[in-house]
Amino acid sequence: MGITEDANRVNTLRSYLNFKSRIEITDGRIFHGTFVCVDKQKNIILAQAEEYRQGKEMDDAFYPVMTSFSTDEKRLVGLIMIPGKHLVKVEVEDLDII
Questions:
Q1: With b meaning 16 or more CB within 10 Å and e meaning fewer, what string describes 6-31?
Q2: pLDDT band at 95 (very low <50, low <70, confident <90, very high)
Q3: Domains contained in the chain, number
C-alpha cells in the first residue's frame, strides 16, 4: 500500500465527517449518530447517537437483569466511542440520493 493510497483513504474518511452513520457491532446492537472521528485502531466516535437492540434473547453475565428485549427498543446514548474490534458493518448516509 503506497502513500498515495493511504492519502486517498484518509481523504475518503474526512469526507464522511459530520454525516449520519449506522454502525452494527458484534453483539448485534446498532448505533445511529453523527460520525465525528476515527483513529488508527478503527475506533469510531459518534455524536448524538442512539442505540437500537436486535430482537433476540439476552441472558448472560453482561446483561444480568435483562432477559429479553424487542427490536423496537432504543435509547439515546449521546457521545459514544465504539471500539474497532467490535465493528461488523459501518454505513454512511449518501446525500447524493436525496
A1: eeeeeeeeeeeeeeebbbbbeeebbb
A2: low
A3: 1
| Residue 65 belongs to domain with CATH number | 2.30.30.100
Q: What's the rounded Cα separation, in Å, for the pair 60 and 66?
A: 9
Report yes or no on 38 lying in a domain. Answer: yes
Query: Reduced to 3 states, what is the DSSP secondary structure of residue 88?
Result: strand
| In the block, residue with C-alpha cell 428485549 | 69
Say whether pTM exceeds 0.90. Answer: no
Per-residue pLDDT tens digits for 20-57: 999 999 999 999 999 999 988 989 999 999 999 876 55
Q: How far is CA 36 from CA 74, 79, 85, 87, 92, in A?
A: 21, 10, 18, 16, 12
- The alpha-carbon radius of gyration of the chain (Å, integer) is 16
Report yes or no: 51 and 72 within 8 Å, Cβ to Cβ.
no
